[in-house]
Fold:
Amino acid sequence: MYPGLLHELHKRVTLSPGQEAAILSHFTPKKLKKRQFLHQEGDIIQRMSFVEKGALYSYSTDAHGAQHVVQFGFEGWWIGDLYSFFTQKPSRLNVEVLESCEVLTLSLESHELLLKTIPPYETYMRILYQNAYVALLSRIENSLGLSAEEIYSRFLEQYPFIFSRVPLHLIASYMGITPVTLSRIRRQVAS
Amino acid sequence: MYPGLLHELHKRVTLSPGQEAAILSHFTPKKLKKRQFLHQEGDIIQRMSFVEKGALYSYSTDAHGAQHVVQFGFEGWWIGDLYSFFTQKPSRLNVEVLESCEVLTLSLESHELLLKTIPPYETYMRILYQNAYVALLSRIENSLGLSAEEIYSRFLEQYPFIFSRVPLHLIASYMGITPVTLSRIRRQVAS
DNA sequence: ATTTTTCCTTATCATTTGTTAAGGTTTTTT
DNA sequence: AAAAAACCTTAACAAATGATAAGGAAAAAT
Structure:
């Protein structure tokens, strides 16, 4: 049951069988089909979501009405808008399904209860955020001073599997460039 | 003693006097003068640093030899290279003093000991990383699809105090634009 | 106080990236 | 199977940003 989530927890902390069962009991599975929305702009996010299977992506809409991909979510990743979840303010993100999904969701109340009652759960969360923060900072650092072409090449090295599962125009948006520019770059890199 | 650090801890968690003393006992103060380096590229970061007083900034050097500002650090902020600190791999960052500083430093061993023995310390760290992660993601989200001019205007609103303490060319570097472009923008915004 | 260094702005020209539009695949829907 | 929608590439032109260089103001060093 929930092999992805269990694997993710055990990667980082040691849990007794009782603790493991207590944690899992708070998660609710949810199935989603392609093009469905997990969250929409304006929602106050009630539950955080772990991707057991499938793929999703989140995007925001800027002041000019243009959309920008913020994050992808594949098996073993958390997805959603933590800002809205923790502050209980309206989300600015939409989270849409790319490939039919099974996600495991957890309410804020459950999250807070688990933090209080299961110390390894708090440790897991600290490590999760610590790693996420460091990874995000590296993402920013590594893109500093790089041309769009260099950003593309690195992205290709780091996440080769994404290219077979995500349309190029979403990758372009994630990279902060237009699909036209990405197309130009791909032609140069290929030759 | 260490009023900045105490204020920062108490903002987020409740500590008994004993716990407070135990935490503080692991920090070592360090004074730094303008232009000194707290860390340099290639160092393996041994201690994380809390800024009690003063200002610093960190920058990396890219493959073309150009420098890029990654982060500023003022009173009440943590500064350094968490990637190197946690992984004990060489840092790619330089951390240089802008205004003479007093920083409080903590070794990895102390950090791990405090995590294990003082639960509110772990809670503090989880909240710190959670907030840092959400803030960093917002920084990325908010800059998506914005022109350099819009990025500048928002930066001006969010951190007005930085402009009186940091040279413009470092701010330009942090924003990912050249000083020349920042100058052009400032002329437009002013008129 | 003088000299040196750092910092900011401006101008010019080159390069990169964005915008718009069109055409052809591929994928999805009916 | 046919129609519709989504996706990717290319071209031509426009706009934004970078690179280089020069001059002057401000700050730091002597």
